[in-house]
Amino acid sequence: MKAKPIQGNSTIEINAALKQSIATGFKPTVAIFFTLKRQRKKALIEMHQKEILE
Questions:
Q1: Does some domain include residue 44?
Q2: How many structural domains compose the chain?
Q3: pTM for the full model?
Q4: Is residue 1, in this structure, part of any structural domain at all?
């Protein structure tokens, strides 16, 4: 199993980091999110699900 931290200060930064990681061959299967805002949580979950399904 390969683990890789993907960090950012906004959902846009996190999405860009995730796409960059996927472009290098990384395939995320599990995600653990730490966030303070409920809205970000929903956006991050939707983003992660979209990337896994594509």
A1: yes
A2: 1
A3: 0.60
A4: no
